Amino acid sequence: xxxxxxxxxxxxxxxxxxxxxxxxxxxxxxxxxxxxxxxxxxxxxxxxxxxxxxxxxxxxxxxxxxxxxxxxxxxxxxxxxxxxxxxxxxxxxxxxxxxxxxx
Length: 103
Fold this sequence. Notes:
The protein is mainly α.
């Protein structure tokens, strides 16, 4: 059983588990399925805007797919969420990626 199948199996018992959904999105990226990963990240962040770890990965995915304006928006939302959560490490990573993109 591959990783995606295993994660989907776990999600049957915990369909809103953000850790599992985030892990699934990362596996989709590894397989080249950016559309499924994007949908999943957006779903996570719409339902749980405080799930800071997904902002970076979503914005990077958008950036890689030349969706620059959307990437900027998600970096900004992520920095705001990280600041509210007191997560200085994530804030720094988001800010660095954001600045690399816009400058």
